[in-house]
Amino acid sequence: MNQYRFFYIFLLISNLFNCSVFAQSPNNPYKAPLYWDVYENNFVQEKAGVADNYISEADFLSNINWVDNNLKQYGFNMICIDGWGNVDYNQYGYRTKHSSSWVHDYAWWSAELQKRGMTLGIYDNPLWVNPGAARAGLKVKGTNISISTLINSSESAKWFTWLQVDKPGAEQYVKGYIQHYADMGVKYLRVDFLSWFESGWDRNMGTVGPSRPLTYYQTALRWMREACDANGIFLSLVMPNLYNDAVTEQTFGHMIRINEDCAEGGWERFSNISRGVKRDGWSQFANPFDGYIYWSKISGKEKIILDGDFIRLNTFSTDDERKSVVSLHLMAGGPVSIADQYNTIGSSLWIYQNAELLALNVDGFVGKPLTNNPSDDRSQVWKGQMTNGDWIVGFFNRETTTETRNIDFMNDLGISGSAFVRDLWEHTDLGVCNGLSVPVVSHGCRIFRVASNPNKVSTPTFSLKSGNYSGSCIVSISSETPEAIIHYTTDGTKPNFDSPVYTTPIIINKSTVINAFATKNNQENSFVISGNYTISPVQKSMYVGGTFNNWDPGKNPMTISTGNNWLTSPVLLSTGDYELKFTNTTDWTGEDWGNANGLNGIATITTGGLPNIKFNISQSGNYTFTFNDEIQNYSIEKSQMTEEHIAKDQFEVYSIKHTGEIFINTNCNQTKEIELFTLKGQCIFRQKFESPTVIIKCDDRNDKFVIVKVKSMVETRFVKVLL
Question: What is 627-662 written as a DSSP string?
């Protein structure tokens, strides 16, 4: 008994000593991460009642490919797993996989991501002891202590079997757990349900476990921080009570969650839920808008980072709302943690790709509202300084009507007189201004960069907007300031006076980030502008191989049409289930694309034996396969054929609704004249062709039908086609 009392006193004294040491070292070496997380995939499955609602490896890979191709060049270089899944553990009781159904473990996926220039982020809590590992008699790594001695089997706790920090071997277990992930190359650890460990209370569920002494909570966090610091791991604390102005979490964490889960997303979860209501314990504020505003009092450069949880842009109603979400996270110095997926993002990807706004994250910027009172309108006006002295001003509007937001350059920014202003969403210079007072639409935002010197060179502009291009593209750079000299780089680095001077358009034939600024004597240099150009290789050929042609791609070659769409001739399919892949060779020696389900969707690169595209045909008939190798969209559509087409051997004329084109195959190389007529007899197209296959774009017509006339030396045919 005396032995345990001595151990407890020693633990308490040691803990107090270490707390004081950490409290004297508040510097945070990290900035907020930009990353993708599996949250939405798991959450949606859970809400749909799916029992095994972990993310599949196929979906995991599809999202990795999507991030790799579209977001990595913008700084999103981490892929993070989340809750759900079941547990496989190793000989020390440490988790090894997201799910026992996965073929590959965390170590494999971490290595795969590192090959791509990305890292794996881990969701786990070293205080969760696997009861199976305890029952199996496993030992704490490096000791002869049984894991079973680290738990209290009679403790009444919901869901989790908690580590007892006052037990011998507990520290080795926690630090060994973090070392387990560090050895894989993991640099980010999200530790969840901390309030359940500390206070044993949940706002919605009531008692979920015992309330523990504060020293136990501090000890557990201290062990985690020491192990993370030893391995260069970013420690994110999730579901903390944040008692006493989060003094404990500030001492031991790099980042803290400041609001409830993203859940269903949308403006309701982002701004409206329990708006302005402060509560005791987790979570003190329900929505991230309130959380960012209130807790801004403890944030700042090299201080604790605030985490507003995941973002699901696809759940918001307007682009104004979507821009507000991303802007607030970046204005507050928080992470941009994407939960949208490759097949749910829709047309909103560009909002995650605003390089001028993401420059705030690169700079380590942390802004603050004019007040940290969420009920005060001034809390919707944010400001902060970049390391070069430029100010960033953010105007937000949480209300249902257009509101005017303003900021005084002298009183709020310390700028006397006028300043040079740029709009970071419109990507335009507003020029010299004496202040800012602008209308902001409901749920919208306006983000400005303000330079105190009004005598500034205009920011360069690119002739081609950032985006995905095939093969190559040409970019010109210009500035509205006469005789300005433009310096640029093409390797993603920040340009300076030693960087090349722009003289002629830049030819881009591989994925490239261009950064540029303009300069002129007796004027301040312009802002730096970035252009991100992803170049997809041009495929010289494309084929379809599947269960319907005995996986012989040569039987179904594809023809290139407008917009990088590859098309097949009609393929006769009976009702039933099928599988296929698109490939650029006839013998599978090149690349192939698959890993999707349904008659349309997004295929991903699957070279090396990864999953096929699976689809079902409910009505027998002729089907056309379309694949865009640039954006990887595919579709399988029933051909709109006429009786004339079916009756005349291999003479084919049909429309493709997906692309708005008419496909004509005459099966001969003779010169032929093709004309299109409206039903009233008006000729709308006439051209001669020698190729047996012709594709004519017709998606700008309002006519329901057109008449196709094909005239050759042998015969003339007319076919009425439904558009």
Answer: EETTT-EEEEEE-B--HHHHHSTT-EEEEETTTTEE
**Alpha-carbon distances, residue 584 vs 537, 559, 624 (angstroms):** 12, 12, 18
Read off the pTM: 0.76
Q: What are phi and psi of 228, to 5 degrees?
A: -65, -45
Q: What angle do CA 533, 534, 539 make, to 5 degrees?
A: 135
pLDDT digits (tens, 9 = 90+) for 258-292: 999 999 999 999 999 999 999 999 999 999 999 99
Q: How far apart are CA 301 and CA 363, in angstroms?
A: 10
DSSP per residue, 364-379: T---EES-S-TTSGGG
Identify the band that residue 14 occupies on the pLDDT scale cut at 50, 70 and 90: very low
User: Rounded to an integer, what distance in angstroms lies between the CA atom of residue 690 and that of residue 627?
Assistant: 25
Contact 562, 645 (CB under 8 A): no
Average pLDDT over residues 195-212: 97
Tens of pLDDT, residue by residue over 140-190, are: 999 999 999 999 999 999 999 999 999 999 999 999 999 999 999 999 999
Distance in angstroms (rounded) separating the CA atoms of residues 507 and 473 = 6
Q: Give the separation between CA 586 and CA 590, rounded to whole angstroms.
A: 9
> Which tens digit of pLDDT belongs to each residue from 310-319?
999 999 999 9
Instruction: Count other C-beta atoms under 10 Å from residue 114's C-beta.
Output: 13
Query: Do residues 519 and 502 touch, judged by C-beta distance below 8 A?
Result: no
Crossing angle for the helix pair 243-252 and 214-231, to the nearest 10 degrees: 30
Strand partners, 571: 623
- Cβ proximity of 334 and 300 under 8 Å: no
Contacts of 185 (CB under 8 A, 6+ apart): 110, 111, 114, 119, 120
